[in-house]
Structure formats: structure tokens, C-alpha cells
Amino acid sequence: MANLRDVRLRMRAIEQTLQVTKAMKLISTAKLRKGRKMLMDTEPYFKRIKKSMFDIFSGTSTINSDFFRRKNPPNSPHTAIVVINSDKGLAGGYNANIFRQVNDLCTRVKNPALVLVGSIGFRYFTHSTHVILENFSFHSQIPTVEHAGEIAEYLVSQYLWGMFDDIHIVYTYMFNAIKMVPVEWQIMPLNMEQIQKELTEIGLAKREGLRFEYLPSVEAVFDVLVPQYIKGVVYGALVEAYASEQNARMTAMDEASKSAEDMLDELRISYNRARQAGITQEMSEIIGGSSAL
Fold first, then answer.
1. Is 237 part of a structural domain of the chain?
2. What family is reported (predicted)?
């Protein structure tokens, strides 16, 4: 009977684990929906910022802006890599895929230095040979425009001060519920051809037939828009990464729940077999005792 007791205890432990994995799956599903809604609510504003930048650029013969030029500062990191990962685990290969992408990028750029968003990435890269410029750790895991603004302000100020002359951002993009891929792209210096391509894809690249006068100057207005654009890029990356993380965790918890249910089925069979064997043995002993009498 000791074997039966052990099986019952193991079944109870797995049932408790199953309750946790199912609850985490439901929570991740709700957070995924919330994250996608957050992006949809703010996307029109940042698209308009991008559109305004393009209109100024395409309607002006020359723009003398530091945001188009590499600084090439001496004795300082040349390439900043913004790494967006998670604060929690239990998300399958979500973080490992990001780390692999970052390590690969670091071999392809000059003097890489990391700007980390997420505590797991900070713990991982602290034990690596990579230079860490800054680590952003927010108490609330849900990304906000304020969080993006804090990161963007740091990036823009350090870029203008000459701390680095390139900024790349690495995060996970969720194409659909099945396909999530780590992506990286350069956000500074500005690449207006890339911005035009993005606007063309959403039908906003065509210039309006109006002529605008920019005061106090074209450069001044443009330089005000760029930090807002960077904030929009960072916020979009934060929300995409957040949605991808929740989707990865939801998938991982679903797989864990299925594995737990399979283990429970096997244990129930083992329990019933052991119980039946015990009953059969008891009956045999009773019959044997009766025959002896």
C-alpha cells in the first residue's frame, strides 16, 4: 500500500502544478490581448510623427541635422545595441533566442555596447565579455509610453553627446501566434529611405499637396520630431516584445499543461493497476485462508 500512497502524493503534486500552468496560460492570454490593444491605441500618433518627418525631408533640399551623421567619437563605444528581453522566465526559448541574436550582432559591428531592458538579460550579459552601458529595470512589466520615453531620452542624449554613433535595437517580433522571430535594425543615424519604405507599405508615403512654413527653421522642427519618433520606435518594440513574451509563455504553459495531463493519465493507470493488484492479493489471501480451514 506504500506504493499506492506514493502514487497518490505524486498525482496530487502534478494536479497542483497543472492548476498553476493553466492559470499562467490564462493570464498570459489576457496580457497578450492587452499588449496588442496598447499598440493599436498609440500607433496612429507615432505614424503621424514618422509621416511629418518624411514630409519635411522630402520637401526640403537639404537638412543640416546631427541625426543623419555618424559621430565617430574617439575612445568610446561606437555601436549601442538596445536589447529588449523579459523580467521573468517560463517562456520557452524566448530569452535564449534574443541572446543568440545579440551575440551574433556583436560579432558584426564595431565596438558594441549594450543598453539592456529586462532583468534576465542583465543577469545573462553581466557574466559575458560585452560592455553594458545602461540597464533599464521597470517595476511594472507592462510597457508604457513613459518607459519608452525614458529609454528614448537616454539614447538621443547619448547619441548627440557622442557616446556612440550607431544605435541598433533587438527585440522579438510576433508575425503570428506560431511564428516569433528576433529582429534587429538600425534606428540611428536616421535612414529616410527605410522610413519611406515603411510609409509606402501603409500607404502614407505620398506627399500632401500643401506647402508648409516651418518656424523657427526646418532643422529645429525636424530635431523636435526625431526624439518623438525614437520614442515611438522604442515603444513599438517594447509592446511587440511584451506580446511575443506573453505568447511564448502561453505556448510554454499550454505544452506544460498537456505534459502534466499525460503524466496524470499514466499515473492513474499505474494507480488503478496497483490498487487492483492489491485487491487481488487480498482476495487470494482470504481464499487461501479459507481453504486452510
1. yes
2. Belongs to the ATPase gamma chain family.
